[in-house]
Amino acid sequence: MRDTLPLLDAIHFPALRRGRLQTLQVNIGYRCNQSCVHCHVNAGPNRTEEMSGEIADLVLDVLKRRRIGTLDITGGAPELNPHFRRLVRGARACGVRVMDRCNLTILSEPDQVDLADFLAAERVEIVASMPCYLADNVERQRGKGVFDRSIRGLRRLNALGYGRGDGLVLNLVYNPQGPSLPPPQAALEDDYRRILGDSYGVVFNKLFVLANMPIQRFGSMLVSKGEFDHYLNLLQEAHLDANLDGVMCRSLISVDWQGYLYDCDFNQMLDLPLAHGARPRAHLSDLLDDTFESHPIRVAGHCFGCTAGQGSSCGGALKEAAA
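The structure corresponding to this sequence follows.
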């Protein structure tokens, strides 16, 4: 796989500093039951990296000490980590809002048949990958059979009350099929709601549109096809300074499976860690004593993926695109 960091590091991006820490985003392992083309983590069935119980306990300690309001759990398929459910229970017991970045097909794995019930019982907010409402497009990006399994997963969640306005939140995530900007979020959400509802009886709360990041599997594909420079130019030309105040790295810290800290999940995949004093890498244990507020954020060319057009973050578009 081709490393895109040297190319990205050569691209200037405006300086940013961290604000108040509101969200701890924890990647608890790179193992996944899928291998998606757009995956910026390069996750898959053969990855072995996973967070230990000791680090999971430290996550809970930090949430309590720092009174962080949101725990955003990601992977891989985070549910495959053996400490996932203990982490969820511990955070919810502290009154923390918990988000699970779920690929939907994990709900039908033989050893996860009770997963949907567990998530509902703990009132976990689900952020579910659903890159299109058309089967062919989903399977081109995520693999054969994924669309049908995703629909079954959504129906299962709906049956438990998710997406129906009673507090069980189900949000979907859209990624473009290739090196292009995502369309306006509100209009696409209307299309998703209409087609998934009419064709499959599926309901959900919101649709998040995310730009594909030129790193890991997707970035390597761009390089191999000679499309890397074109895509970066597209992102740069669509950059809006107005999006800088809303980027997720201002209020979020990303934690890897070993407990090291990053400004965002994308920096984690590029191995651009937060520094701490004279040490090149900050660790989760440092968060017990320091929130890193006002610290400079490490930026490079990939950051234009968050500020191009309507903007892109873990919570979807930052603003609606101009008409």
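The CA atoms of residues 238 and 309 lie 5 Å apart.
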